[in-house]
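Case study: MFS transporter.
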Amino acid sequence: MQIENSEDVAGNKQIRQMPQFDHQENHTNQMVTEDNQLKQNDQNNQEKSNQEQVAEEATAKEAKKMTIIDALERVGSKNKYQILFFLFSGFVWLFGATSILSPTFTFEKPAYNCPDTVSSDKCESWVCDQPNPSDYFSTHPESFVMAFDPPLICGRQYIADMSVAFCYAGSAIGFIVSLYIADNKGRKIGTIIFWILAAVGAYISTIFGFNIGASVFGFALSQFGANSAINIVFCIMNDHSLGKFREYTMAALNPFYGVGGCVLVLMAVITPKFRLIMLCIAVPITISCIYLFFFYDPPLFLYEKNKQQAIDVLNKIAKINNRPTVQYDEVEDKEVQIKSSRIYGLKDLFKYRSLRYNAICSGLILFFVQISYYGSNLILSQIGLDTKLNALTTSIADTCGYLAIVPIITHIRRKRWSFCPGIIYSVIFICFNQITVPDDCGDNCSEKKLQTALVTIARFFLTFEWGLAFIYITEIFPTTVRTIGLGFASFVGYLGSVFSSYFLTYLINQGINPLLGMGVVSIISLVFYFPMTETYGVPQQAEIKELVEEERINQEKQKEEEGKTFTKNLENIKKDSSDEQKELQNISQINNKLSSAQIPTVAALN
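Here is what the predicted structure looks like once written out:
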């Protein structure tokens, strides 16, 4: 019995020891679980700390990156490259002006001798009523108008008017085509295409000078290319330089246009034949085309399309300027990236409120200004002194008007200083209605001298307004649609030049002084300055405001959706982890129950 008891005791002891072992095993499992949880928490904290550190380093690195403006400053924004392009642009403006202003001589009409009983305003109408109008010509210019028999005057005046209108329409159509090419395909390719077409058109009018259709097509094609090229290089000047240098060089381009008018007069003096004048225009344009392959699209424009292309051009400019280069990672990305495949067009000017009023008003301003400008060119043979002398004095006035802008461009408000000269020249044009040329007035009488003097003064203020308004309109549009905006305004403006020949003919037929009519429409143009926004002292826009806001909202929505997806995935991961912990807790609870019931646990049995 004792042995049994002993065995019983021994057995009891053994049985008592088993729950102690189970208890110890359970405690060990709990410690392992807690240890794993601590390790997991430490690992998560470490990963979070590493992520925060990486984010802080990325933020600090991003903060140290340059803006595209800083990058342009590094490679040089007013150095050799910009100066060379300014000189080329000046050349484009000079000989572009000779093409654009060529109708002054290519469509020059003869001066007339009328009896003393016929007033000067009605002289042309009286001559045309005579059986042989050529008997009353006091001059016989070798112009396109006089190259045919009978000349394109009087009963055939409508052909000349249509031809002039078609020429100026060439410029207008050029603007429409160029604005799509320049802002979507590139400023460089646009300049190449249109400057070459300017030369081709001049050659056509030279070779086929005695064919009305071919000649007019050549005139129109030359203007189609010249005016478009002028607009594009003006936009390039605005986008590849900075600060006061940008403002000075943009203002300094305008005088080249005035000099072009003087060069055209010199051509007419050397050779009055219109075909040779067009040849003199074509040859220098052809020679200058060599430089077209040695300049680049402006970096500020490219940056809005493709950052890598902008960096490549910046480094090419740096090489020319002997300045430090920039690396891709040194330049910050755009905060809001518009799709580079987006096609900008005229609809954008009217779709977005920030562009709509500026586009409409700037177009109407140039419309009325160009009625006065080109209308005064076409009337030069009918007022004042000799046509060539009138053209020379007005060209000098144009140059002086443009030059007057240069020293003050960095100090003047665009809207106010465009408005005031408009008032002055409008009043001068209206005053022409009070000047009566006596019937016995000779070629150099005081009244004719006064007319030449007044039209010269008026042209000074007219070109001052036009030159400053051109800069103003260029600055008012964002980089991505600058050529489109300026092109649209110029297109509407050139409708004014197309309309000018018909407008003058109508005024003459009604016995109204043409300059009086131009003065009235010039005053009308001033109304459209009021709704426009001032650009002086305001940073230039890179992109359309509303488009940037739309893209920002879309990106925020996309980030919000990505955040929701990430949160959902994280919750699923946490749920899975929670399920595993519950399983471990269940096992621990089972072991505790088995231990308290003195039943061997699975671990103990093993």
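For the exam, be able to explain this: The mean pLDDT is 77.
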